[in-house]
Amino acid sequence: xxxxxxxxxxxxxxxxxxxxxxxxxxxxxxxxxxxxxxxxxxxxxxxxxxxxxxxxxxxxxxxxxxxxxxxxxxxxxxxxxxxxxxxxxxxxxxxxxxxxxxxxxxxxxxxxxxxxxxxxxxxxxxxxxxxxxxxxxxxxxxxxxxxxxxxxxx
Length: 154
Prior knowledge:
single chain, three-stranded antiparallel sheet, mainly alpha, 48% helix
């Protein structure tokens, strides 16, 4: 392990992002990140840009905003938590439970919007109650909840 790899190891452990697990079968270092995922990097990087890129990759995996003020300015990281910086997708590194609930809410919204309020009042109330339960679960997890669209019958 050279000095650049030691600097990276110090950075990742001192910030609490992960711990070094050891070497892989070759000459790569394997880190276990705090979200349970693994990150593998070279044990002898030859350029400081390799370490900078590794830090960026770790932040993306963990859903942490970039340290670069320029990146924050252009990617609006302060406005959307969990911004991945690759394609503007704020759902990067979203826990599977949150994603499952969001998909269920979208499906319910689509079904609710298809129903006519007078002809399907009972079914509409049942679906609306279920949507409220799902959005309450999302609120408890700290995830933003989308608002339903406009009904098709208007």
